[in-house]
Amino acid sequence: MIWTRYLPGLAAAAGGAALLYSSRRKRAVAFACLATLLGLVGMEAEYWVAHGFPMSEVTFFVAAVALTLTALAFAALGGTALGILGLGFFAYVNLRYGAPYLLDYVLPILYAFLLGRSRRQLGWQGTGILRAGCTEGLWIAATYLLMFWRTSSLGKWGWITGAPW
Question: Whole-model pTM above 0.85?
């Protein structure tokens, strides 16, 4: 059934939103980091539901989980590094290959929240466009416009109807 393809992405999005919403100011970075971890697990589950879990993904998944747990241990500084790495990775992958899965759109938002909360906690923000959250929002808007264009130009929107891409 086509809706089974969306369940991991919807579960990760709902769980990530719940973690971000329920976090207290002191634990905002840790909860945002956990939301990205939940997103990674959901992303791999989405791949598995769509076409089976390839063994080539195991190394990436283990490395991504290890990086996320390391960032969690380093609090706001680790969250900043992981946020930058996550936003850069998804911008590259989604612009290079198109974004045919739901979590290709959810995970960058989780990494943007992580980066914004980490920068705010570290005091690494300025005024105007450099405010924590504003810069990340502009990054998301620009990359999403390019992702929509790239996914369309590659003809990868078939995942919506269950077609193989």
Answer: yes
